[in-house]
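Predicting holo structure, calcium ion bound.
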Amino acid sequence: MEKVKGFLILAFLGIYSGLAVAQTPLPKVNQLGYYPDLPKISVTPEIEASVFYIKEATSGEVRFTGELEEGGLNIPSGEEIKIADFSDFKEPGTYVLEVEGGATSHEFVIGNEVFENVTDAVLKAYYFMRASTPLDEEFAGKWARAEGHPDQNIMIHASAATESRPEGVIFSSPKGWYDAGDYNKYVVNSGISTYTLLFSFEQFPDYFKKQRLNIPESGNHIPDILDEALWNLRWLITMQDPEDGGVYHKLTTANFEGAVMPENANSQRYAVMKNTPATLDFAAMMAQAARVYKDYEPAFADSALTAAKKAWLWAEKNPDVLYRQNSMNQQYEPDIVTGAYGDRNASDEKFWAGAELYITTGDKSYYSESGWKSEQFSIPDWNDVRALGLYSLVHHSKNSDLNLNQKGLIEKLMEMVDTHVSASETAPYRSPFGHDDSYFMWGSNGHAGNVGMAILQAYQITGDEKYYDAALHVADYLLGVNPTGYSYITGYGDKRVMNIHHRPSEADGIEEPVPGLVSGGPNPRNMNQDCGEEMYPSKLPALAFLDNWCSYSTNEITINWNAPAVFLFSGLEALRPED
Ligand SMILES: [Ca+2]
Ligand SMILES: [Ca+2]
Ligand SMILES: [Ca+2]
Ligand SMILES: [Ca+2]
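Done. C-alpha cells:
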C-alpha cells in the first residue's frame, strides 16, 4: 500500500480524463442483483417523487409499484434519501427501477445466482496477485502475463543483519501475493489477509470443497481456496530467520517501482527488520495453517506448527520490537520508503497468536483469558487483530477439549456487532456500514467487508435473520447502493471502478482492469497526498472517492481489502436462509 507520494504519480495527472460532474439523482441499486426471497433496497437522493416502479428491462413493462419512504439525511454524503423497498417483489428476471419523474437505475437481476460469479472472482483475484509465476491464458484469460519476481535473490537489509545472516547475504523467498497496487510483499498485511481466507474455509468448508476457481491447482486434492492461501504461506515460511525464529517485516524494493508489468520491475529486493508484530502475525497464521492443512498437506502442516512455536518464542524474548521506518532509515542504508505497515501496539497480535496456538495445540500456556475478557473489541484491521483471536475462539469454543467460556466469548462478539447493526435499522441507507463519518478511512471498503464479516458470524451464532439481512446490505453497499453509486469491485456492475491504482492493470494495455479486486473506497483524509483535493468530486466522507490511477488513497487495491469480501460473499452464499 502506498502512503508516500511518488514522482510517478505526478506524471500521470496529465492524462486524467474523468473530471467530476455533478451527480444525477439516480436510484442506486445493487448492480448485480437481489435474491428473490430476501430484502431488496434501492435509495435515491434529492428527489420529490413519492412512487417508484420496477420495470422489466427489455420490454419496459411495469411489474411492481411501490411507495418511496423517507430515509432522512445521510450525514456522510449530505444526501436527503428516499428508500424504495421492493422486498415483496420476488419474480426472477432483469429489471430497472424508475422513480416518478423518470430517473432510472442501472439494470439489475432478481435471481438465485446473483452473487455466484463475484464470489469466485474476489477469491480468484489472489491468483492474479501471485508473484514468481507466469499467469497462463488458460487461467488468466486476457490478463495472462509473464512471470514476475522469481525472488531467488533477496538481500538481507542492514536492519535485519545477524551473525549467521549478515548484511548483503542472499536468500531465496519466492511465491506469495503482491500486497496491493505495488509489487512488494508485507508480512503484517499478509496476516489478516491469509487468516481471513483460512477462516472462511474453517467456517464454510462444504462451500469451498465444491468451488472451482480455474486456477492451476483446480482438480487436485485440495480445495482451491487452500491452494491459493498456500501460495502465500509457502512464501511466508521463508520470511522466518531460521536461526532465531524472528520474522522479517517485509520483502521490498527500497523505492516503489514504476507503473510497469511485474517482469519489468527488477530492482533489488530486501528482507527488512525483524519485529514483534510481524513475528506474532506469522505465528498466528502458521498455527492456524497447521490445523487447516493437517488433512491436505500434512508435511506443510508440521513445518507450519514448528515455525509458529519458534516465532512465538522469539516474540517472548523480544516483546516490544516495533517497526519504525523513519528511525530505521536514520540508522541504515539504503533507505526503505515503501509501505511502512508500522504498528505501535503488539498486545493484540500476542493475544491472536496465542489464541491460534492454543486452539491448534491445546497447550493452555499460550492462552490469555484477559486478552478478551477485559477488552473492548473493534472491527479488525491489519494493525488491530484482537478480534481475529476472538473469532477463532468463538468458532472453536464448541471443541470440548479446549474448555473455553463460550458464553462469555459470544457476548463479546455480539456486543461488537450490535453497535453496527442496531444503528443501521434507522440509517438512511439501512446499512450497518457507512451511516456516520467514522466509517470513511483509508481502505473504507475493506472496513465494510470486515463489518459484514463480523455480522455474518452473529447470524451463524444466533440464527436471527436480521443479521443475515444486515450483512446482505453491506454487499449491496459494495455493489452500488452507496453515495457514489459505484460498484467497487472490478469487472462487476454497470457503473464499476475502472482505473484502480494497480500496476498491472495500469501497464497491461487492456481496458478492463484485472477482475475481482475491491477498490479502497471513499476516504476524505488523504486527497492532498495523491491527486490533489481539486481533483476529487467532494470532500464529504462518503463521496470522497476518485476512480483514477492517481488516487491511491481511495482507489488502490490490497489483499486485505479483498479478504473480507471473500468471507462476506461466500458466507452469504453458503448460509442463505431457506424459504
Ligand atoms: Ca484445488
Ligand atoms: Ca539511511
Ligand atoms: Ca497491533
Ligand atoms: Ca489495464
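Residues 116-404 form a domain with the Glycosyltransferase fold (CATH 1.50.10.10).
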